[in-house]
Amino acid sequence: MNSPGLQTKEPSSSLKNSLTHVPGIGAVFQIYIIKDLEKLLMIAGEERALCLVDVKKVKQSLAQSHLPAQPDISPNIFEAVKGCHLFAAGKIENGLCICAAMPNKVVILRYNENLSKYCIRKEIETSEPCSCIHFTNYSILIGTNKFYEIDMKQYTLEEFLDKNDHSLAPAVFASSSNSFPVSIVQVNGAGQREEYLLCFHEFGVFVDSYGRRSRTDDLKWSRLPLAFAYREPYLFVTHFNSLEVIEIQARSSLGTPARAYLEIPNPRYLGPAISSGAIYLASSYQDKLRVICCKGNLVKESSTDHHRGPSTSRSSPNKRGPPTYNEHITKRVASSPAPPEGPSHPREPSTPHRYREGRTELRRDKSPGRPLEREKSPGRMLSTRRERSPGRLFEDSSRGRLPVGAVRTPLSQVNKVWDQSSV
Which portions of the chain have biased composition (kind: Basic and acidic residues) (predicted)? Predict the structure, then answer.
C-alpha cells in the first residue's frame, strides 16, 4: 500500500492530532534525511523519481497548514533517475554519496561541493534488479543475482564472496537454484572487525570485509523472508504473517542462538525504534493499519528446562505491561460478531507454514535455472585476493524448517508495545 503523499504530524494541543499533507509531493515510496545538507531524499511521484526536498520548506509548509491556500513545494528531481525502486545514501571517505537502483542498472551519485549538487559518476548495468544496498567506509555492497562490491575510487565491480572457499559454494551459486540476495546486514559491534550477514531467500552466511566466511554455521529461515532488520543483538525477519526474532551471538559464543516467532498479520518493517534492540512495524488487520514497537528480549532455555518442556511462566518481570499481540487480537475477535461462513464470506486463511515462491516479483527471468556461462553477470572474478579463507569443506545445505538444535522460545519472551492509536 503506497502512501498518498508526504504527510507530517501537526503539533497541536488538541486531543487528536491530524496528518497534514505537504502540497506538491505525490506518493512517497522511500525517504531518508541527509542531515549534512538538511534535505529529504525520497522516491516520489508516479514516475518513481529520485528527488531532494529542503527540510526548511517542509517545516514552513507545516507552519502554514492552517491557511486556506499553500504554495506547492517543488522538489529537485534527478531526471536521469526515474523508475527507481530502492536507494541508499551515506558517506564514503567524507564524501556524500547516493546509490540508486532501477530495474536494469544502479546509479552512483556524488555530491560536488563546488556545484552544490549531486552529480552522476557511474551507471552499472545489472542482469537482475538490485534488491539491497549497503555502504561501507570505502565501497558499496549490492545484491542482484549475486553479491557485488563497488570500489568507489575506480568505480569497478567485482563479486564479493570468496570463490576460493568451498564452504561458500552454496552462496556463490545460489542464483542457479533460484535463491537470490535479499539483504545485507552489518552485525559487528562497536570497535570490532567488520562482519556482515548476507541474507538469501533460504539461508544467511557470515562473512568478513573480504567476503571470506567468518563463522562456521549458517542461519536458516523456516519461512520465506520478506525483509531483514538488525538491532544489536537481535535480527528481525518479517514473513507474510509472522515475525521471527533471532539473537545474533558473538563469534566466540557456543550453542544455538535463541529464536522466537510472533504471529503478526502482514508485518512491514518501518525502521529502527528509539529504544535499543527494538524496531517499528506496521501491521494491517481488519481494515486498520497499526504501528507496533517490537523489542527483542530473548532468554534461552536451559538444557534442563528444555527436557522438562516449555515453561508456562512469563520471563518478563513487568507483570503490568501492555497486553501481548495474541491477547489483543483474541479480545478483538471475541468482541466482534463472527462473520457467516459460506462462498460469499470465506474464512480468513491461516498462516501457511511453508512457501514455495523462490523469487520476488521484480525478477524477470522465470526459468528454473540458467547455465552459469550464460549469466549476464555485471561482475568479474576477483583475482587480486591472495589470502585463502579457512573455510570448511563443502556441505550440502539442508532446507529444513528449523536448524538442528534450534529452540522455539515462548512468544511471551518478546516484549511488544502497542501504540494506542490506529491509522
Answer: 344-399
Whether 237 shows a pLDDT value over 60: the answer reads yes
Burial of 391 (0-12, 13-18, 19+ CB in 10 A): middle
Length of the chain as a residue count: 423
- CA 360 – CA 9 distance, rounded (Å): 33
Containing H/E element for 60? helix 55-63
Over residues 167-217, the pLDDT tens digits come to 899 898 887 777 899 999 999 877 788 999 999 999 999 999 999 999 988
Look-up: residue for cell 523519481?
A: 49
Whether 106 and 142 have beta carbons less than 8 Å apart is answered as: yes
Identity of the residue numbered 410 = P
Spatial neighbors of 315 by CB under 8 A, at least 6 apart, are 297, 299, 410, 412, 413
Q: In terms of Cα–Cα distance, which of 174, 270, 276 is closest to 227?
A: 270
Complete domains list, the chain, with CATH:
22-83 (no CATH), 85-220 (2.130.10.10), 227-297 (no CATH)
Phi then psi for residue 329, to 5 deg, are -65, -35
CB neighbours of residue 308 within 10 Å: 10
Cα–Cα distance measured from residue 282 to residue 166, given in angstroms and rounded to the nearest whole number: 40
Residue 66 dihedral angles phi and psi, to the nearest 5°: -80, -10
Instruction: Give the amino acid at 346.
Output: P
The kind and range of the H/E element at 325 are: helix 325-335
**What's the pTM?**
0.68
Q: What are residue 372's phi and psi, to 5 degrees?
A: -65, -30
Closest CA to 86 of 139, 147, 129: 129
CB atoms within 10 A of CB 314: 13
3-state secondary structure 195-246: EEEEEECCEEEEEECCCCECCCCCEECCCCCCEEEEECCEEEEECCCEEEEE
Quote the CA–CA distance of 237 and 225 in Å, as a whole number: 6
Comparing 310 with 273, the larger pLDDT belongs to 273
As a whole number of angstroms, the distance between CA 68 and CA 110 comes to 40
- DSSP helix/strand/coil, 355: coil
Handedness of CA 81, 86, 89, 95 (dihedral sign): negative
Bridge-partner residues for 100, per DSSP? 87, 107
Q: What residue has cell string 463472527?
A: 338
- Which residues face 229 on adjacent strands? 236
Question: What confidence category does residue 402 fall into, taking pLDDT thresholds of 50, 70 and 90?
Answer: low
- DSSP 8-state class, residue 397: P
